[in-house]
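User: Could you walk me through two proteins back to back? I'd like the raw sequence and the structure tokens for each, with a short line separating them so I can tell where one ends and the next begins.

Assistant: Of course. Protein one, sequence then structure:
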Amino acid sequence: MPTLLSVEAVSKSFPGVRALEDVSFTVEAGTVHAVMGENGAGKSTLMLCIAGVQRPDPGGRLMFEGQPLDLHSTRDANRHGIAIVFQELNLAPNLSIAENIVLGQEPRAGRVFVDRAAMRGQARTVLRRLGIDLDPDTRLGSLTIAQQQLVEICKSLVHRPRLLILDEPTSSLSEAETLVLFRVIADLRREGVTMLYISHRMREVFALCDAVTVLRDGRHVRTTPLAGTDQDEIVRLMVGRDLASVQRVPPGAEERPVVLSVRGLTRAPQYRDISFELRRGEIVGLAGLVGAGRSEMALGVFGAPPPDAGEVWLHGARIAVDRPLTAMRHGIGLVPEDRKGQGLVLMHGVGTNLSLAALRRLSKAGMIDFAAERGVVDKYVRRLRVKTPGRDQVIGLLSGGNQQKVVLAKWLATNPTVLIIDEPTRGVDVGAKAEIYALMRELAAEGLAILVISSDLPEVLTISDRVLVMREGRMMGELSHAEATEERIMALAALEHAA
């Protein structure tokens, strides 16, 4: 097959960070080409260079269809037939679905006014292509994260790209939505569209892709056909070592004291009559399809917003759940699903973000104890192996996985007794994922009660002592460690007769 894209000695530096160094490889036309590596390996930075968001450093170059590619913006890339679906949502929540899909490319009536009928028509066409039943006039901010991810994909298809970059496109999608995306990828491939596919999910890569390029620490390690390799070899190339497999660990036999008790929690229509318990030193998984109300219920326990009815008991005493500050004062922490929108202040430094929730503990007489703050920041940067040149590094310049580690560290710095973690490894590579699992087990061994919400069933099974399952805003059942399987979880999550 002819070469569509050539990456030739591409490097990219930011203040204090060498994100890419002398990366070279080629992508054949009409193929799905995976790009893999640990968080911080340079994958997203390289994709931003190809998509016109960032300019490579002088010395290297990009070639597209045999011609030098000199891009100054994403609009410039779109004109060349290159589009990108960002890992982090790049949408306007106060605009409609249709306005987001055609943003910057609005059809005009008489070259002056936006042709809103044509805009809705374009939006309906791409929504229908992905099998999405949504009104184009719906405000984007009212959608779930998964639905917003699908709108991001629709936005890229408006440009009819010859090269489509998909950066962790399934990280927020349910199994059903993922299958829809796979069908779209197959259709695009038959139409001759070439795709660069970034994912940490090995099964997806081997199911969809023809070849893989592995990056490590900003350098090219190897490009190879997937038919000639296996998952273990790719992991070794990514991390530079053999990675021990993560095994399910049975819970301890001792009866542990109840730390958190949720009774009849309700905020209609998101969730109704939710009751469960968390015990000291255990990890409880909360599973369910996207839209089941898991994240909304977790936010309710945290008081963001508070539930309409029900009770939350901590250490045997009923507590108010009127606002997040109250929950924090009682020792409850929440790592949100949307780290970019709810977990971080992207233009501030790593240290500022990490210490933000613990400032009350790090202050004396209303003044921040900066020495104590630096100590806490350095402690958790080391413990979670956050890749950053320093505590003042702007967090928006870190990889998604390292941002996730900082959000987790932010709540650990508050010394919580209960920690709710929503999608703990979304967009996180295999090496960092194993580190996060080990950290959660270590925290549980120290007595922390952890509730983990995850759409990844192997993840739920790997880390959980017990599994709770929600469907359509209700708690459908509980499975012990011995009872929990993917089939039994899905039966509770999806089948009416399992209620």
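----
Protein two, same layout:
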Amino acid sequence: MSVPVKMYSTAVCPYCIMAERLLQSKGVEQIEKIRVDLDPEQRELMMQQTGRRTVPQIYIGDTHVGGFDDLSQLDRSGQLDGLLHPA
């Protein structure tokens, strides 16, 4: 069982798609997607929480991992699996 994953995204976002594919390749079956292009209040909330204005912004459980580059770095360093599937 993996921890919940939440991703702030927009409709046309190649990095969001790449992040989703990477997470799915790690066994994540469900991603709560929050479309900030459809809901400006969610974009404001995302910026307040993360200090960033770009998408994707990804949370694994309560941990803000950042965007696709951050997610990819976690994967390369071997830390992503531990976040997604804690022992």
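The beta strands are 5-9, 31-35, 57-60, 63-66.

Let me know if you want the two compared in more detail.
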